[in-house]
Amino acid sequence: MLATVYKSTGSWYVVKTAEGVVLQARIKGIFKIDGITSTNPIAVGDHVNIEMEQGAEQVAMITDIYNRRNYINRQSPSHRMHHHIVAANVDQSLMIATLKEPRTSQGFIDRFLIACEAYHVPAMIVFNKTDLYKDKERAKLDELTEMYTRIGYGVYPMSVKNSEGVDAVKELMMGKTSLISGHSGVGKSSFINELLPELALRTKDVSDWSGKGMHTTTFAEMFDLPGGGRIIDTPGIREFGLVDISKQELSHYFPEMRHLIQDCQFNNCLHMNEPDCAVKLAVQEERIHIDRYVSYCTILDSIKEKPY
């Protein structure tokens, strides 16, 4: 039987068959050693084959996994050299960010966008908690909106608390499988509760002492939307470590740099100190935003090349 993975808790999975039957499932041990280097060989969104276990009602064995159309991964929180697949077979990703309580850094946003570019997942940014923004945050939102929309990303302001901008974001998700991600405390669970009130997901206030959100979602989980479409709720992520991206590749995942790379003098140009660099020229001429270039340099410096 064909089924889709709706939840992964590490050793057990929740799957839904094409007929809509929800089952508990587990995997054969071979998946753990079958050349898959991620910490989770099967992820939410995966399409799998299942067989019912003998003598175990409503329990299935996952026997095979279909090729993924795409996926998003990040560095495993427990092992720097391993990666963790966040979700598979998604149509788009929504990064929920905030400029206040807690503030989402541009570096975090850019790392998420790089992961989406690397795995061919269209991405958009939703800035939540606009009801808290003062003049300083509103000016910053205008600046970020202009910077990201200019390079092709959709940017949407939203206040779940005041129900402002929520319907516009809901419209973007109809009929699609959408990954929802962001720091803990940005209002992810509150937004999902707006979409699916019956879930009543737990929400927590931002921690007073740290200024960071508290973790509320432990495992990634997919939910069906009324009227069509699905969302994948992910655990709040404190850091977004990139994996399997080399220094030479990084600029390929910055859309504003990608079309200029062939104009650099050197094929392996890192756009730092090399002469006749088309990317640095574009920065000087303000065709590439200086903040995006600084972000590129910071991320480039953080990439540790794997020893051969």
Question: Could you characterize what this model shows?
Answer:
The structure is a single chain. By secondary structure, this protein is α/β, with parallel strands linked by helices. The chain has 3 domains: 2-65, OB fold (Dihydrolipoamide Acetyltransferase, E2P), CATH 2.40.50; 79-233, Rossmann fold (3-Layer(aba) Sandwich); 247-302, Ribonucleotide Reductase Protein R1, domain 1 (Orthogonal Bundle), CATH 1.10.40. Helices cover 24% and strands 25% of the residues. It contains 8 helices and 13 strands. The protein has a 6-stranded mixed sheet, with helices on both faces. A 5-stranded mixed β-barrel has the order 1-2-3-5-4. Strands 6-7 form a two-stranded antiparallel sheet. Helix 2 links the parallel strand 9 and strand 10 (154-157). Helix 1 packs across helix 8.
Strand content: 25-35%
Low confidence ranges: 204-217
Specify the helix fraction band: 10-25%
Q: Return the CATH topology of the largest domain.
A: Rossmann fold
- What is the helix/strand order? EEEEEEEEHEHEHEHEEHHHH
CATH architecture title of the largest domain: 3-Layer(aba) Sandwich
How many domains?
A: 3
What is the rounded Rg?
A: 21 Å
Q: Total strand count, please? A: 13
The largest sheet, given as strand count, sense and whether it forms a barrel, is: 6 strands, mixed
- The CATH homologous superfamily of the largest domain is named P-loop containing nucleotide triphosphate hydrolases
Q: How many helical stretches?
A: 8
Instruction: Based on Cα principal axes, name the global outline.
Output: globular
